[in-house]
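SEQUENCE WITH STRUCTURE:
===
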Amino acid sequence: MSSHSIIPSLLHLPVELTYRILDHLAPSDILVSVRDVCSRLNAITNIYPRFQTLTLLDLQCSNLSHDAAQRLSNALKSNQTFTSLNLRFCSIDALKSEYLGDSLKSNQTLTTLDLLSNGIDNEGACCLADALKINQAITRLDLTRNNIGSQGAQYLADALRINQTLKILSLSDNTIGEEGACYLSDALKINKTLLALHLHGNGINNRGAQCFADMMMINQGLITLDLSSNVIGDEGAHYLSDSLKINQALTTLQCNSSSISDAGVRYLADGLRINQTLTKLNLRSACIGFEGAQFLGDALLSNRTLTELDISFNRIGDDGAQYLSNGLKNNQSLRILMIQMNNIGDKDAQYLGNAVKINQTLITLNLRNNGIGDEGARHFADGIKINTTNVITTKVSHSHQKLERINIISSQYSRSHQVNKSPMKMESIPL
């Protein structure tokens, strides 16, 4: 090739050949490298079939430059096909958030925006909040693990007072604290469309829990509230219990990894006796002892809506397991009970096994990492042989003898069981 040879440019290639080149590029490369180079390439990509039908754009871990973020923003303003955008781990700072916010003000097709683990701070949250006041398409926004504090939460709360389309908002692992929690809860007294709010690990205290409890006495739209891994104790549980007695919308409450002890569980149990909508309650890794298990067992006697209860990694012990078994004998709604790592031994495995004989709804009982041996395993197998209604998966801790015994009992029972009845099975799953 002579020194005067001309290297063909993408700008001047025939459309058909340009398409062939685009076929070998990832959608993200087309968007941030080909778009907005010139009007001709924009026109070509606008009618490029693969680009026209693309709905999911995954730019995770792209470490977007400011120029690339601006080109992405420009593309989103005109694009009418993208419905989901993944920008996890993309180093989205305040300026890039501004570009993104500008595009959301005009884009009306994007419904899911994932911004997990970026550098979005209060200023960036402000840009996104301003966009949410105008945007009528986004239904799911994930801002988990960013640098959003109480001021950023205030900006987003202001947007929630206006926005009527967002359904799921995750602000987990930020630093909104008590003040930010109160901003958001006040906004939800007005907002009627948000369905799920995730606030795991935000330093929310009892006062913050009170703000959400006050909100739930008014709001009848929110169905999932995640307050896990915060600093909520018995006082906060008291506030939440009062709201459960009135609220008729919430179906999932996550309070795991909290400071709630037996006293707080007593309050929540009182709420469960009255509440008729909550289906999932997570109190995993709290400070619950046998008295707390007693309160929950008593609540199960009257509650008819709770289907999933997780009190794993507490310390209810044998006495607590006995109290729970009393509740299970009469409960007709619970389907999943998670009580692994609770110092339960063979003694009260017998009580739980007896409850399995009677209970007609439970399908999963997780007892892993307890002190249940072969004797306790046989109690569960005996319960399964008698109960002819449900398919029960019981997870216990590892033991080869125990696993062999359960499998033999279950196999013998399955062969002898009538065809027109649902066979029960019991699995011992190693850790």
Notes: The chain has 17 helices and 13 strands.
